[in-house]
Protein backbone atom coordinates (compact mmCIF):
# COMPACT_ATOMS: atom_id res chain seq x y z
CA UNK A 1 0.00 0.00 0.00
CA UNK A 2 1.21 3.46 -0.86
CA UNK A 3 1.24 5.48 2.34
CA UNK A 4 -0.38 8.60 0.93
CA UNK A 5 -1.52 9.89 4.30
CA UNK A 6 2.01 9.48 5.67
CA UNK A 7 3.37 11.49 2.75
CA UNK A 8 0.74 14.14 3.53
CA UNK A 9 1.80 14.31 7.19
CA UNK A 10 5.39 14.82 6.03
CA UNK A 11 4.17 17.72 3.86
CA UNK A 12 2.72 19.37 6.97
CA UNK A 13 6.11 19.15 8.72
CA UNK A 14 7.99 21.03 5.99
CA UNK A 15 10.00 24.04 7.04
CA UNK A 16 10.16 22.67 10.54
CA UNK A 17 12.66 21.21 12.99
CA UNK A 18 12.31 17.68 14.40
CA UNK A 19 14.28 17.17 17.59
CA UNK A 20 15.74 14.05 19.20
CA UNK A 21 14.52 13.70 22.79
CA UNK A 22 15.19 11.01 25.39
CA UNK A 23 12.54 11.91 27.97
CA UNK A 24 9.46 14.01 28.70
CA UNK A 25 11.49 16.93 29.99
CA UNK A 26 13.44 17.15 26.73
CA UNK A 27 10.23 16.78 24.74
CA UNK A 28 8.69 19.75 26.55
CA UNK A 29 11.77 21.87 25.85
CA UNK A 30 11.53 20.90 22.17
CA UNK A 31 7.82 21.75 21.93
CA UNK A 32 8.31 25.06 23.73
CA UNK A 33 11.10 25.96 21.32
CA UNK A 34 8.75 25.41 18.37
CA UNK A 35 9.74 21.94 17.12
CA UNK A 36 7.19 20.48 14.68
CA UNK A 37 7.76 16.95 16.00
CA UNK A 38 10.00 15.04 18.37
CA UNK A 39 11.97 11.83 17.84
CA UNK A 40 11.90 9.58 20.89
CA UNK A 41 15.03 7.55 21.49
CA UNK A 42 16.92 6.03 24.38
CA UNK A 43 20.13 7.97 23.89
CA UNK A 44 21.04 10.78 21.55
CA UNK A 45 23.46 9.62 18.83
CA UNK A 46 26.61 11.08 20.44
CA UNK A 47 25.84 9.08 23.60
CA UNK A 48 25.26 5.97 21.50
CA UNK A 49 28.77 6.48 20.13
CA UNK A 50 30.23 6.79 23.63
CA UNK A 51 28.25 3.86 25.07
CA UNK A 52 29.07 1.45 22.25
CA UNK A 53 27.35 -1.94 22.20
CA UNK A 54 24.05 -2.60 20.41
CA UNK A 55 21.64 0.33 20.14
CA UNK A 56 17.96 -0.68 19.98
CA UNK A 57 14.43 0.75 19.94
CA UNK A 58 13.43 2.78 23.04
CA UNK A 59 11.62 1.38 26.04
CA UNK A 60 7.87 1.82 25.30
CA UNK A 61 7.34 3.50 28.68
CA UNK A 62 9.66 6.31 27.57
CA UNK A 63 7.73 6.74 24.32
CA UNK A 64 4.37 6.80 26.12
CA UNK A 65 5.69 9.33 28.62
CA UNK A 66 6.76 11.58 25.75
CA UNK A 67 3.42 11.11 23.94
CA UNK A 68 1.60 12.18 27.10
CA UNK A 69 3.73 15.29 27.48
CA UNK A 70 3.53 16.90 24.04
CA UNK A 71 0.79 17.57 21.48
CA UNK A 72 3.08 17.65 18.42
CA UNK A 73 3.77 14.41 16.48
CA UNK A 74 5.99 11.84 18.19
CA UNK A 75 8.33 9.74 16.06
CA UNK A 76 10.52 6.85 17.19
CA UNK A 77 13.43 4.86 15.81
CA UNK A 78 13.68 1.18 15.05
CA UNK A 79 16.67 -0.78 13.78
CA UNK A 80 17.12 -1.23 10.03
CA UNK A 81 15.27 -4.39 8.98
CA UNK A 82 13.78 -4.98 12.44
CA UNK A 83 10.14 -5.20 11.41
CA UNK A 84 9.01 -6.38 14.85
CA UNK A 85 10.39 -3.25 16.51
CA UNK A 86 8.43 -1.37 13.84
CA UNK A 87 5.28 -3.35 14.70
CA UNK A 88 5.76 -2.47 18.37
CA UNK A 89 6.15 1.21 17.53
CA UNK A 90 3.05 1.09 15.36
CA UNK A 91 1.07 -0.48 18.20
CA UNK A 92 2.21 2.44 20.38
CA UNK A 93 0.72 4.73 17.70
CA UNK A 94 3.87 6.69 17.03
CA UNK A 95 3.22 9.18 14.23
CA UNK A 96 6.28 8.21 12.16
CA UNK A 97 8.76 5.32 12.47
CA UNK A 98 12.37 6.16 11.63
CA UNK A 99 14.10 3.05 10.30
CA UNK A 100 17.44 4.39 11.37
CA UNK A 101 21.11 3.72 10.81
CA UNK A 102 21.76 5.40 14.17
CA UNK A 103 20.66 2.15 15.81
CA UNK A 104 22.54 -1.10 15.19
CA UNK A 105 21.12 -2.75 12.06
CA UNK A 106 19.14 -5.97 12.55
CA UNK A 107 19.31 -7.11 8.92
CA UNK A 108 22.29 -6.63 6.63
CA UNK A 109 20.36 -7.53 3.51
CA UNK A 110 16.83 -6.20 3.74
CA UNK A 111 15.13 -3.07 4.96
CA UNK A 112 11.61 -3.34 6.36
CA UNK A 113 8.84 -3.83 3.83
CA UNK A 114 7.13 -0.61 4.80
CA UNK A 115 4.13 -1.14 2.55
CA UNK A 116 2.74 -3.57 5.13
CA UNK A 117 2.27 -0.89 7.77
CA UNK A 118 -0.51 1.64 8.27
CA UNK A 119 1.77 4.17 9.93
CA UNK A 120 4.41 6.00 7.86
CA UNK A 121 8.21 5.53 7.80
CA UNK A 122 11.11 7.90 7.33
CA UNK A 123 14.45 6.48 6.14
CA UNK A 124 17.96 7.83 5.67
CA UNK A 125 19.94 8.15 2.44
CA UNK A 126 23.35 9.26 1.23
CA UNK A 127 22.47 9.69 -2.43
CA UNK A 128 19.59 9.49 -4.88
CA UNK A 129 19.84 5.72 -5.36
CA UNK A 130 19.44 5.06 -1.64
CA UNK A 131 16.58 7.54 -1.42
CA UNK A 132 14.69 5.93 -4.30
CA UNK A 133 15.25 2.40 -2.95
CA UNK A 134 13.75 3.44 0.39
CA UNK A 135 10.81 5.13 -1.36
CA UNK A 136 10.26 1.96 -3.42
CA UNK A 137 10.15 0.01 -0.14
CA UNK A 138 7.39 2.33 1.04
CA UNK A 139 9.13 5.17 2.90
CA UNK A 140 6.78 8.18 3.10
CA UNK A 141 9.60 10.58 3.93
CA UNK A 142 13.37 10.68 3.41
CA UNK A 143 16.16 12.32 5.35
CA UNK A 144 19.72 12.63 4.24
CA UNK A 145 21.87 10.70 6.72
CA UNK A 146 24.77 12.98 7.47
CA UNK A 147 26.86 11.50 10.26
CA UNK A 148 24.79 11.41 13.44
CA UNK A 149 26.27 12.34 16.79
CA UNK A 150 29.26 14.18 15.39
CA UNK A 151 28.09 17.80 15.47
CA UNK A 152 29.87 18.01 12.12
CA UNK A 153 27.81 19.21 9.17
CA UNK A 154 30.19 18.02 6.45
CA UNK A 155 28.54 14.66 5.78
CA UNK A 156 25.03 16.15 5.74
CA UNK A 157 26.15 18.62 3.09
CA UNK A 158 27.78 15.82 1.09
CA UNK A 159 24.58 13.77 1.11
CA UNK A 160 22.25 16.66 0.28
CA UNK A 161 24.48 17.59 -2.64
CA UNK A 162 24.62 13.97 -3.80
CA UNK A 163 20.81 13.73 -3.88
CA UNK A 164 20.57 17.07 -5.69
CA UNK A 165 23.21 15.98 -8.22
CA UNK A 166 21.35 12.74 -8.89
CA UNK A 167 18.13 14.62 -9.53
CA UNK A 168 19.88 17.14 -11.81
CA UNK A 169 21.25 14.24 -13.87
CA UNK A 170 17.76 12.79 -14.28
CA UNK A 171 16.33 16.17 -15.24
CA UNK A 172 18.91 16.54 -17.98
CA UNK A 173 18.23 13.01 -19.27
CA UNK A 174 14.52 13.81 -19.42
CA UNK A 175 15.12 17.13 -21.14
CA UNK A 176 17.25 15.43 -23.79
CA UNK A 177 14.73 12.58 -24.04
CA UNK A 178 17.44 10.01 -23.30
CA UNK A 179 14.99 7.40 -22.05
CA UNK A 180 17.36 4.49 -22.54
CA UNK A 181 19.87 6.18 -20.24
CA UNK A 182 17.08 6.72 -17.72
CA UNK A 183 16.33 3.01 -17.84
CA UNK A 184 20.00 2.34 -17.14
CA UNK A 185 19.77 4.69 -14.16
CA UNK A 186 16.77 2.75 -12.87
CA UNK A 187 18.83 -0.42 -13.14
CA UNK A 188 21.80 1.18 -11.41
CA UNK A 189 19.56 2.42 -8.58
CA UNK A 190 17.71 -0.93 -8.46
CA UNK A 191 14.29 0.72 -8.65
CA UNK A 192 11.51 0.83 -11.22
CA UNK A 193 11.80 3.00 -14.31
CA UNK A 194 8.51 4.65 -13.32
CA UNK A 195 9.97 5.94 -10.06
CA UNK A 196 12.99 7.35 -11.90
CA UNK A 197 10.75 8.97 -14.50
CA UNK A 198 8.48 10.42 -11.82
CA UNK A 199 11.48 11.91 -10.00
CA UNK A 200 12.83 13.39 -13.24
CA UNK A 201 9.48 14.99 -14.05
CA UNK A 202 9.02 16.40 -10.56
CA UNK A 203 12.61 17.63 -10.46
CA UNK A 204 12.75 16.63 -6.80
CA UNK A 205 12.23 13.55 -4.63
CA UNK A 206 8.62 12.37 -4.78
CA UNK A 207 8.42 12.58 -0.98
CA UNK A 208 9.46 15.22 1.55
CA UNK A 209 13.20 15.25 2.29
CA UNK A 210 14.73 16.57 5.52
CA UNK A 211 18.41 16.87 6.45
CA UNK A 212 19.90 15.07 9.44
CA UNK A 213 23.18 14.10 11.04
CA UNK A 214 25.52 16.77 12.34
CA UNK A 215 23.39 19.91 12.61
CA UNK A 216 24.65 21.83 15.66
CA UNK A 217 24.04 25.53 15.00
CA UNK A 218 21.33 27.79 13.55
CA UNK A 219 23.60 28.45 10.58
CA UNK A 220 24.00 24.69 10.00
CA UNK A 221 20.22 24.33 9.81
CA UNK A 222 19.86 27.29 7.43
CA UNK A 223 22.70 25.93 5.28
CA UNK A 224 20.81 22.67 4.77
CA UNK A 225 17.60 24.60 3.99
CA UNK A 226 19.37 26.78 1.43
CA UNK A 227 20.76 23.63 -0.17
CA UNK A 228 17.15 22.68 -0.80
CA UNK A 229 15.93 20.28 1.90
CA UNK A 230 12.39 20.63 3.24
CA UNK A 231 13.30 20.73 6.94
CA UNK A 232 15.82 19.46 9.48
CA UNK A 233 16.29 16.83 12.15
CA UNK A 234 18.51 17.84 15.04
CA UNK A 235 19.84 15.09 17.28
CA UNK A 236 22.71 15.56 19.69
CA UNK A 237 23.20 19.18 18.61
CA UNK A 238 20.60 20.52 21.02
CA UNK A 239 20.79 18.48 24.19
CA UNK A 240 24.59 18.16 24.07
CA UNK A 241 25.00 21.94 24.01
CA UNK A 242 25.33 24.14 27.10
CA UNK A 243 21.87 25.76 26.80
CA UNK A 244 19.45 23.37 25.04
CA UNK A 245 16.29 25.51 25.35
CA UNK A 246 17.93 28.56 23.85
CA UNK A 247 19.71 26.63 21.10
CA UNK A 248 16.55 24.72 20.20
CA UNK A 249 14.61 27.93 19.74
CA UNK A 250 17.46 29.50 17.76
CA UNK A 251 17.55 26.55 15.36
CA UNK A 252 13.76 26.75 14.88
CA UNK A 253 14.03 30.49 14.13
CA UNK A 254 16.92 30.04 11.70
CA UNK A 255 15.09 27.25 9.87
CA UNK A 256 11.92 29.33 9.50
CA UNK A 257 13.93 32.33 8.28
CA UNK A 258 16.62 30.38 6.43
CA UNK A 259 17.05 32.99 3.69
CA UNK A 260 17.33 35.95 6.06
CA UNK A 261 20.95 36.32 7.18
CA UNK A 262 20.08 39.10 9.64
CA UNK A 263 17.64 36.83 11.43
CA UNK A 264 20.08 33.91 11.40
CA UNK A 265 22.71 36.21 12.92
CA UNK A 266 20.29 37.27 15.64
CA UNK A 267 19.35 33.66 16.36
CA UNK A 268 23.05 32.77 16.66
CA UNK A 269 23.81 35.32 19.41
CA UNK A 270 24.87 34.20 22.88
CA UNK A 271 23.94 30.56 22.59
CA UNK A 272 26.78 29.34 24.82
CA UNK A 273 28.85 26.31 23.86
CA UNK A 274 27.76 24.21 20.89
CA UNK A 275 28.34 20.47 21.20
CA UNK A 276 32.00 19.74 20.85
CA UNK A 277 31.82 17.78 17.62
CA UNK A 278 34.14 15.30 15.97
CA UNK A 279 36.26 14.98 12.87
CA UNK A 280 34.73 12.37 10.58
CA UNK A 281 38.16 10.79 9.91
CA UNK A 282 38.59 9.87 13.58
CA UNK A 283 35.27 8.01 13.93
CA UNK A 284 35.27 4.34 14.87
CA UNK A 285 31.78 3.76 13.44
CA UNK A 286 30.38 5.41 10.36
CA UNK A 287 26.64 5.11 10.87
CA UNK A 288 25.85 6.44 7.40
CA UNK A 289 27.37 3.34 5.80
CA UNK A 290 24.72 1.16 7.42
CA UNK A 291 21.73 0.01 5.38
CA UNK A 292 22.43 1.26 1.89
CA UNK B 1 -5.82 49.78 -10.46
CA UNK B 2 -4.16 48.44 -7.35
CA UNK B 3 -2.72 44.97 -7.93
CA UNK B 4 -4.24 42.02 -6.13
CA UNK B 5 -2.11 40.31 -3.52
CA UNK B 6 -2.68 37.24 -1.36
CA UNK B 7 -0.15 36.07 1.21
CA UNK B 8 0.54 32.56 2.48
CA UNK B 9 2.03 32.30 5.97
CA UNK B 10 5.29 30.61 5.05
CA UNK B 11 7.20 29.67 8.21
CA UNK B 12 6.32 26.04 7.98
CA UNK B 13 3.72 23.52 6.75
CA UNK B 14 2.32 22.84 3.28
CA UNK B 15 3.09 26.35 2.05
CA UNK B 16 4.11 25.57 -1.54
CA UNK B 17 0.94 23.52 -1.98
CA UNK B 18 -1.20 26.52 -0.98
CA UNK B 19 0.78 28.90 -3.17
CA UNK B 20 0.43 26.65 -6.21
CA UNK B 21 -3.25 25.92 -5.73
CA UNK B 22 -4.01 29.63 -5.19
CA UNK B 23 -2.19 30.46 -8.43
CA UNK B 24 -4.14 27.75 -10.26
CA UNK B 25 -7.42 28.97 -8.79
CA UNK B 26 -6.68 32.53 -9.92
CA UNK B 27 -5.89 31.25 -13.41
CA UNK B 28 -9.17 29.32 -13.52
CA UNK B 29 -11.00 32.50 -12.56
CA UNK B 30 -9.05 34.54 -15.13
CA UNK B 31 -7.76 37.11 -12.69
CA UNK B 32 -4.22 38.20 -11.87
CA UNK B 33 -3.21 37.70 -8.29
CA UNK B 34 0.26 37.98 -6.87
CA UNK B 35 0.71 35.18 -4.33
CA UNK B 36 3.48 35.93 -1.82
CA UNK B 37 5.20 34.13 1.05
CA UNK B 38 4.73 35.82 4.41
CA UNK B 39 7.48 35.51 7.00
CA UNK B 40 7.77 39.03 8.37
CA UNK B 41 5.61 41.81 9.76
CA UNK B 42 6.49 43.92 6.72
CA UNK B 43 5.23 41.33 4.26
CA UNK B 44 1.76 41.50 5.84
CA UNK B 45 1.39 44.96 4.39
CA UNK B 46 -1.01 45.58 1.52
CA UNK B 47 -2.35 42.04 1.54
CA UNK B 48 -5.93 41.54 0.40
CA UNK B 49 -5.99 38.19 2.13
CA UNK B 50 -3.90 35.73 4.11
CA UNK B 51 -3.88 31.94 3.92
CA UNK B 52 -2.68 29.97 6.95
CA UNK B 53 -1.51 26.50 5.89
CA UNK B 54 -1.52 23.11 7.54
CA UNK B 55 1.29 22.42 9.98
CA UNK B 56 1.68 22.59 13.73
CA UNK B 57 -0.44 25.34 15.27
CA UNK B 58 1.91 25.59 18.28
CA UNK B 59 4.89 26.25 16.04
CA UNK B 60 3.00 28.71 13.82
CA UNK B 61 1.79 30.69 16.81
CA UNK B 62 5.29 30.92 18.29
CA UNK B 63 6.93 32.03 15.08
CA UNK B 64 4.26 34.68 14.46
CA UNK B 65 4.64 36.06 17.98
CA UNK B 66 8.43 36.07 17.82
CA UNK B 67 8.13 38.04 14.60
CA UNK B 68 5.79 40.52 16.32
CA UNK B 69 3.12 40.07 13.66
CA UNK B 70 0.29 38.73 15.83
CA UNK B 71 -1.78 41.91 16.24
CA UNK B 72 -1.26 42.88 12.63
CA UNK B 73 -2.55 39.50 11.47
CA UNK B 74 -5.79 40.10 13.34
CA UNK B 75 -6.41 43.17 11.20
CA UNK B 76 -6.25 41.34 7.87
CA UNK B 77 -9.59 41.55 6.09
CA UNK B 78 -9.79 38.03 4.69
CA UNK B 79 -8.21 34.90 6.17
CA UNK B 80 -8.46 31.28 5.07
CA UNK B 81 -7.09 28.58 7.37
CA UNK B 82 -6.76 24.85 6.79
CA UNK B 83 -6.17 22.37 9.62
CA UNK B 84 -3.61 24.21 11.81
CA UNK B 85 -4.81 27.37 10.07
CA UNK B 86 -8.38 26.66 11.19
CA UNK B 87 -7.11 26.26 14.75
CA UNK B 88 -5.41 29.64 14.48
CA UNK B 89 -8.72 31.27 13.52
CA UNK B 90 -10.80 29.77 16.35
CA UNK B 91 -12.03 31.71 19.39
CA UNK B 92 -11.58 28.68 21.64
CA UNK B 93 -9.26 25.65 21.39
CA UNK B 94 -9.16 22.46 23.39
CA UNK B 95 -5.94 20.51 24.11
CA UNK B 96 -3.73 23.50 23.59
CA UNK B 97 -0.17 23.56 24.85
CA UNK B 98 0.80 25.86 27.69
CA UNK B 99 0.65 29.46 26.51
CA UNK B 100 -0.69 28.61 23.06
CA UNK B 101 -2.82 31.39 21.61
CA UNK B 102 -5.03 31.74 18.57
CA UNK B 103 -6.12 34.81 16.64
CA UNK B 104 -9.62 34.40 18.17
CA UNK B 105 -11.36 35.68 15.07
CA UNK B 106 -14.02 33.06 14.28
CA UNK B 107 -16.77 32.07 16.64
CA UNK B 108 -15.88 28.37 16.67
CA UNK B 109 -14.58 25.95 19.28
CA UNK B 110 -12.00 23.53 17.97
CA UNK B 111 -10.31 20.46 19.45
CA UNK B 112 -6.70 19.80 18.36
CA UNK B 113 -5.68 16.30 17.14
CA UNK B 114 -9.16 15.19 18.07
CA UNK B 115 -9.28 12.14 15.81
CA UNK B 116 -6.09 10.76 17.35
CA UNK B 117 -2.57 10.21 16.08
CA UNK B 118 -1.36 9.59 12.53
CA UNK B 119 -2.74 6.03 12.43
CA UNK B 120 -6.21 7.67 12.68
CA UNK B 121 -5.60 10.03 9.76
CA UNK B 122 -7.97 9.36 6.86
CA UNK B 123 -9.29 10.64 3.56
CA UNK B 124 -12.72 10.46 2.00
CA UNK B 125 -14.95 12.08 -0.58
CA UNK B 126 -17.27 14.60 1.03
CA UNK B 127 -20.09 16.82 -0.14
CA UNK B 128 -19.75 20.49 0.60
CA UNK B 129 -22.01 23.36 -0.31
CA UNK B 130 -19.26 24.40 -2.76
CA UNK B 131 -19.24 21.00 -4.47
CA UNK B 132 -17.70 17.57 -3.92
CA UNK B 133 -14.12 17.28 -2.74
CA UNK B 134 -11.69 14.57 -1.74
CA UNK B 135 -10.98 15.58 1.85
CA UNK B 136 -7.67 14.62 3.48
CA UNK B 137 -7.63 14.68 7.29
CA UNK B 138 -4.12 14.58 8.82
CA UNK B 139 -4.08 14.48 12.63
CA UNK B 140 -7.02 16.76 12.08
CA UNK B 141 -8.81 19.02 14.54
CA UNK B 142 -12.56 18.73 15.17
CA UNK B 143 -14.89 21.70 15.30
CA UNK B 144 -16.88 21.18 18.49
CA UNK B 145 -19.19 24.18 18.34
CA UNK B 146 -20.02 26.90 15.86
CA UNK B 147 -21.60 30.25 16.72
CA UNK B 148 -24.90 31.46 15.30
CA UNK B 149 -23.17 33.78 12.83
CA UNK B 150 -21.05 31.00 11.38
CA UNK B 151 -22.20 29.36 8.16
CA UNK B 152 -21.46 25.66 7.83
CA UNK B 153 -20.10 24.61 4.42
CA UNK B 154 -19.47 20.91 4.97
CA UNK B 155 -20.15 18.17 7.46
CA UNK B 156 -18.71 14.72 8.04
CA UNK B 157 -20.87 12.36 10.04
CA UNK B 158 -22.79 15.28 11.45
CA UNK B 159 -19.73 17.28 12.49
CA UNK B 160 -18.74 20.58 10.92
CA UNK B 161 -15.56 20.24 8.86
CA UNK B 162 -15.66 23.52 6.93
CA UNK B 163 -17.31 26.86 7.71
CA UNK B 164 -17.19 30.59 7.09
CA UNK B 165 -18.00 33.75 8.97
CA UNK B 166 -18.48 37.33 7.88
CA UNK B 167 -18.09 40.02 10.52
CA UNK B 168 -18.66 43.45 9.01
CA UNK B 169 -15.94 43.88 6.39
CA UNK B 170 -14.00 40.89 7.63
CA UNK B 171 -14.29 37.40 6.16
CA UNK B 172 -12.94 34.10 7.51
CA UNK B 173 -12.95 30.62 6.00
CA UNK B 174 -11.86 27.48 7.88
CA UNK B 175 -11.47 23.78 6.97
CA UNK B 176 -10.38 20.93 9.25
CA UNK B 177 -9.04 19.04 6.24
CA UNK B 178 -6.63 20.02 3.47
CA UNK B 179 -8.48 21.26 0.36
CA UNK B 180 -5.09 22.44 -0.98
CA UNK B 181 -4.07 18.80 -1.46
CA UNK B 182 -6.93 17.86 -3.75
CA UNK B 183 -8.46 20.71 -5.75
CA UNK B 184 -8.87 24.43 -6.36
CA UNK B 185 -12.50 24.37 -5.16
CA UNK B 186 -12.03 26.13 -1.82
CA UNK B 187 -9.35 28.50 -3.09
CA UNK B 188 -11.56 29.64 -5.96
CA UNK B 189 -14.39 30.19 -3.49
CA UNK B 190 -12.10 32.17 -1.19
CA UNK B 191 -10.79 34.33 -4.04
CA UNK B 192 -14.35 35.08 -5.15
CA UNK B 193 -15.22 36.18 -1.61
CA UNK B 194 -12.09 38.31 -1.29
CA UNK B 195 -12.65 40.13 -4.58
CA UNK B 196 -16.47 40.00 -4.43
CA UNK B 197 -16.77 38.24 -7.76
Write the SSE topology.
The complex is a heterodimer of chains A (292) and B (197).
Chain A: H1 4-13, E1 17-21, H2 24-33, E2 37-40, H3 45-51, H4 60-69, E3 74-79, H5 83-91, E4 96-100, E5 121-125, H6 128-136, E6 141-144, H7 154-175, H8 179-189, H9 193-202, E7 208-211, H10 218-226, E8 231-234, H11 236-239, H12 244-256, H13 261-268
Parallel strand pairs in A: 1-2, 1-8, 2-3, 3-4, 4-5, 5-6, 6-7, 7-8
Helix pairs in contact in A: 2-4, 2-12, 7-9, 8-9, 10-12, 12-13
Chain B: E1 5-9, H1 15-28, E2 34-38, E3 49-52, H2 57-66, H3 70-74, E4 78-82, H4 84-89, E5 90-94, E6 106-111, E7 122-128, E8 131-137, E9 142-146, E10 150-156, E11 159-167, E12 170-175, H5 185-194
Parallel strand pairs in B: 1-2, 1-3, 3-4, 4-12, 5-6
Antiparallel strand pairs in B: 6-9, 7-8, 10-11, 11-12
Helix pairs in contact in B: 1-5
- The CATH topology annotation of chain B reads as Rossmann fold
Distance between the termini of chain B: 16 Å
If you average the pLDDT of chain A, what whole number results?
Answer: 96
Radius of gyration of chain A: 18 Å
Protein name (chain B): glutaminase
Family (chain B): Belongs to the glutaminase PdxT/SNO family.
Pfam family, one (chain B): SNO
Binding site for L-glutamine (chain B): 55-57, 112, 138-139
Please describe what this structure looks like.
In chain A, helix 2 links the parallel strand 1 and strand 2. With 292 residues, chain A is an alpha/beta fold. The longest helix of chain A is centred in the middle third of the chain and has 22 residues. The model of chain A has no long low-confidence stretch (mean pLDDT 96). Chain A is 45% helix and 13% strand. The mean pLDDT of chain B is 96. Chain B is an alpha/beta fold. A seven-stranded mixed β-sheet of chain B has the order 2-1-3-4-12-11-10. A three-stranded mixed β-sheet of chain B has the order 5-6-9. A two-stranded antiparallel sheet of chain B has the order 7-8. Chain B has a single domain, classed as Rossmann fold (3-Layer(aba) Sandwich), CATH 3.40.50. In chain B, 50% of the residues are buried. Chain B has five helices and twelve strands. Chains A and B meet through helix 1 and helix 12 of A and helix 1 and helix 2 of B.
